[in-house]
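Issue 218. Parser rejects a valid record. Input:
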Amino acid sequence: MDISNWTTPASTVVTNAVGGAREWKLAQKELCHVPIMNQQHKPVAPPLRDTSRCFSDAEWSNSSLKAGIGWIISAESLEGSTMCSFVSSPFIAETLVL
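Output the parser choked on:
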């Protein structure tokens, strides 16, 4: 996503990204309880006991070549965010957050 015309500080962008990741995570829990009818699915093994899930997001500015990145790791209850300089593309921004 090109945010080159935005005047929003990187910290606000990252805060919004982390908030969006939280909303997405909560929505996934709700979707898991919706029964799917008339479709045959192979059984999926439950996650292993010590499994972690990582939710991440990134925003990129073409004009400043900066990216705001944020993440949440579920099993550890860890979350973080930062701003990165000299990021050449939105693909690199998404890669950095992982």
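Fixed in the parser; the record now loads. The longest strand covers residues 54-61.
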